[in-house]
Design a protein that fits this description.
The chain is of the alpha+beta class. The chain has a single domain (2-121), classed as TT1751-like domain (TATA-Binding Protein, 2-Layer Sandwich), CATH 3.30.310.70. The protein has six helices and five strands. A five-stranded antiparallel β-sheet has the order 1-5-4-3-2. Helix 1 crosses helix 6.
Length: 122
C-alpha cells in the first residue's frame, strides 16, 4: 500500500515515532537509506525505513507461518518521490495474510499498520 502526505519525510518520521512510543510499540531500528547513500557518495531522495512491532503479536504469526519472519517485524517506508511528494508505503495486512496463509484472527495481529500509516500520512 502507498499513501501520499503533504508533510516532509522528517515530519512524517517524527509523527510515526511519536505514535509508536505512545502505543508502547517497539522500534527495532530506523534505516536512513538516503543518509547511507550520501555516505557512499551517491544522491538519493530522502528515504527512511522504520522497523517496528509488538513481539507478542508478531511471534504468533511466525509460529503459525515461520516464513512470515521475512516480513516481520512490520515496516513502514517513508520516502520522497520524484515530484517531491512524501510517500508512506507498507505491506497491507491482507497481503501478509494471503502470502503466508494466515487465518483472519492472526492477520488481525498486524492490522494496526494500516491505521498507523493513515494517521502519519494524513
Amino acid at each position: 500500500m502507498q499513501l501520499a502526505s503533504t508533510r516532509s519525510v522528517g515530519d512524517v518520521l517524527a509523527h510515526l515515532l511519536s505514535i509508536l512510543q505512545a502505543k508502547a510499540v517497539k522500534v527495532f531500528t530506523v534505516i536512513d537509506h538516503s543518509g547511507e547513500a550520501a555516505k557512499a557518495g551517491l544522491e538519493m531522495r530522502e528515504t527512511k525505513l522504520v522497523i517496528f512491532g509488538n513481539p507478542k503479536a508478531g511471534t504468533q504469526l511466525m509460529i503459525a507461518a515461520p516464513d512470515s519472519a521475512l516480513d516481520l517485524p512490520l515496516k513502514i517506508l517513508i520516502a520522497q518521490d520524484a515530484s517531491g511528494t512524501t510517500r508512506v508505503s507498507y505491506n497491507a495486512p491482507s497481503y501478509l495474510g494471503q502470502r503466508y496463509g494466515l487465518t483472519p484472527e492472526l492477520t488481525a495481529n498486524v492490522a494496526v499498520i494500516a491505521q498507523i500509516a493513515a494517521a502519519i500520512a494524513g
